[in-house]
Each structure stands twice: as C-alpha cells, then as structure tokens.
Amino acid sequence: MLQRFFLEVTQSQDSQSPERMALYDYDSRRLLNEIHGEEWRKLLEHLDTSEEGILDATTQDEPDGLRPLDMDSQPASNTDTSGRAESVGEIPQSAGAIELYRPPEDALDPVKTGRRKLWEIPHKYHCPIIGTCLTVEELRRIGKRFVWSTKERLSDYEIHVGFVSAAEERNGLSQATQKLLDKKFASTVRRYGKAKDQKAILALWSESLACGEVPSGLWALMSHPKTDAETMVLAYEDIHMLSHQIGAGQRADLKRLSETRVELNRVRHEFETFQRRSTHQAEQRERTISDLETALSDRQDACTQLEQKTELLQRQLAENGTSDLVERIAALSDAHALAQSRLETALSASQALRQKLSDTEKRAAELETQLAEREAERESLERLLTLNLSQQCEECPNDSCACRADLAGQLVLCVGGRKPLVEQYRQLVNSCNGRFEHHDGGLEDSHRRLETMLASADAIVCAADYVSHNAYYRTKRFCKRLDKPHVLLGNSGLSFFARALEQVAN
C-alpha cells in the first residue's frame, strides 16, 4: 500500500540543526509525529526508501527551484558549491520545509446528472466537509432519527467520525446529511452553479474566504459538477491552513480570557475592598444617627422640664398677686401689635403713593414730548398754510418769503400713506418747489417697481402705518445702503408729512 507523507521542518537562520519537525499523513493531513532537535533524523531512518513514492524528495527553498534529493545516499560531511545538501542526512542552511513526493491526484468520476453527491466526493474530503459545514448540534439532530436514538450519549468526536464514515457510501444517514447541506447552503450553491470552469469556481472560493463564508463555499465547491481534483486539493489546503489560523486565534482568545480573568479578579478584589469600606462607613453613620437620636431625646426632655418650670412660675406669679401686672403686659403687647400693624399699613400706602407719583411723572414727560411734537407739527402746518394763502409774487428776491420750505426741485417719493391724502401730499410738495411720486407700499404696486422709484428719488418719506412690512424694510435698507435722505413717519397725517418735508428741505 502506498504511504504518502508531508514533512514540515522548521529551522532558525543561525542554527545548523532544525528546531522542529512535523510529519503529516498526506491524505488526511493528520499530524503523525512531532519531534524537536536532532531526533528528527531517527524518524527518517525508519522510512522504507524502496517504497514507491518515497524514492524521490524535493526541497522547496533552493534559489534555483526544486531539486531532487537521493534518499538512498549516505550522509556526507561536506556540501557542494551551491550549499545544497547532498543527502537527507544533512539539513540545508536555510531549510524551511521539505515535502515528500506525491503522485498526481486521481481524476474524479464525471457527474452524470445534477451536482456531485456527498458519497460521490472522495472520502478524504468528508472529514473537512462534515467538520466545517455542519455543527455538532445539527449532526446530533440528524443522528437521533437513525442509529443513536437508543444508545448512550456519544462524544462530539464519535459523532463526527460516524458521519464521516457514513458519507463514503449512499445510505440513509449520508442522504440526510446531503439534504441538510443542500438546504443550509442553497443560496451559495445557486451562486456557484453559475460558474462554468475552474477559474470561475476558484474566484468564487476566494470571495467566500475573504468574506468569511467558508462553510457554504466549501460545500458549493465540493459538490459542483465542474470541480476537478486539483481544485478540490486547493480548497482542502486552504481549509487546512485556515484551521491552523483558527487554532492560533483560539490560543490568542485563551490568552485574552486568562488576562480577563486576572482583570476580573482584580476588579472583584477592588469591589470587595470598596464594599468593606462602604459597610464600615455605613456602620459609622448608623452610630452617628444613634448618637444624634439620643441627643435629640435629651433635648426634648430638657424642653419638657423647661415647660414645667414655666408653668410653675406662672402659678407662683398668680398666687403672689401679680396678675394685674401680667394683664398690663398683655394689653401693652396688644397695643404694640396694633401700632405695628398700622405702621405697616402706612408704609404700604406710602409706597403705593410713591409708585403712583412716579407713574404720573412718566406720563407727564410723555405728554410733554407729544405736546412738543404737536407744536412742531402745528408750526409746520401754519407755515404751509401761510404759504398757500399768501399771494404768489413772481421773481421775489426774498428767499424766505412766507416762511417757505424750498425743496429746490427735488423728487420726493412717498412710500405708503393714506390713499385719500395722496393728492394733498402732492400739493404740499409742489407748493414747496418739489416734485412728487407715490408708491402704495406693496398694496397694489409691485415691489419690483419700488426699487426703480427708490433709485430715481432724491428723498424718501415712508409712512409706517400704511405700508407692508416688506416695502418698509426694503426702503429702510435701500436708503441706509446708499445714504439717501429719508424720513420714517410713525403717522401718515398731513402734519407729520409737512414736518417731514421741512426736514428734507433743511
């Protein structure tokens, strides 16, 4: 029977002897033995070099590629010029791994119809398929319907071995396993089913490895009708190396678990210390509360004794004829309380009068301000009326004739204002030697027209009580931005408008 092995040798750069040698069965990739140091040579002496498949060997770290080594040659004391070992008895200086020669994989039987069934896959791949694609709980659930329903509970390993053995041929257990695998990984199987050649299958397998979909990808690859023996070997090697990585990850997890346990013990110790300290503090607080309660009880007893002494003194005073004095003291106390109440009432009334006086003074100041404004408006109206009632004298050399406000031909734009007073606004402006235009403040006239009229006017008068908010703020911003003369009126009456014309003229 042909025996095929995989020999892995690890050697440091500064050492002549290997640090570790591991011997694996090629078909199952199972670790057969592991030796450290020089003892690895003894194992090679037991290999039958006459067996087919072990007659040739190759080393993988030579700069010129793979070179054959003669297994039958005796150990030599020196090496050739290239530094390559002449026999298996001497390890190359930089040897990393040695792989025994293995014949090519046997061709797979073609799939007649559909995909490849579990029992149609080579038996050496059943172990990684069962172990990677299905959990132990799933295997137990299937096994209960078959041979294990009446037996004692089997270990996880025994269940795994049983399924792997049953997968070699078609039977009830292998068919149930096939059905579960197809159902569990149906979407991935459909995706792999679109692949038509080995290149496409390997591309999908690489994607499955990258995104962590190894179980579904492995089953889809192994059961694909186009998968050949070489592709299965590549997938098998990836699973083998991935198991090493998972083992390393588990060791790292165990290390982190150990560190976490140490940290947990530290935190638990700190918590216990804190709990003891808190308990001690709580006991101290309980003692303090108890002491305070005792002191309070003593004070209450003292108060009771004082009350008793007071009652005794009152009785003694009554018995000694001092009741009249007590009555006078009570009457004086009542009189004092009444006087105090009257004083508080008087103070409240005085405060109210002071507040009323302050409000009256504020109102008087406001009325004086309004009166001054009305006087200014009246004077403006009187001057305008005097101007309108006086005779027009042509070419009068006196510029102050009839106290006239001269606008010097300026174009005055009125924004807003009462519509019935527009013509009177116009007459006032014309009588003051000015030109007049009106915009209703957005009631009917457009806001776009307002911009044009603002730009052409020399002065602007805006009445805030008859204008839209938009027109008011646009007029205000426009005049401030261009520093154009403007008057913002709070009232659109004639007197206010007349006063605004005087401000513009002056």
From TrEMBL:
InterPro entries membership: UCP020408
Keywords: Coiled coil
Coiled coil ranges: 343-384
Gene3D superfamilies: 1.10.287.1490
Keyword match Membrane: no
Annotated spans, Disordered: 58-88
Bias (Polar residues): 74-84
Key word Lipoprotein present: no
Highest rank taxon of the organism: Bacteria
Similarity section: Belongs to the UPF0751 family.
Record-given protein name: DUF2325 domain-containing protein
Organism: Thiorhodococcus drewsii AZ1
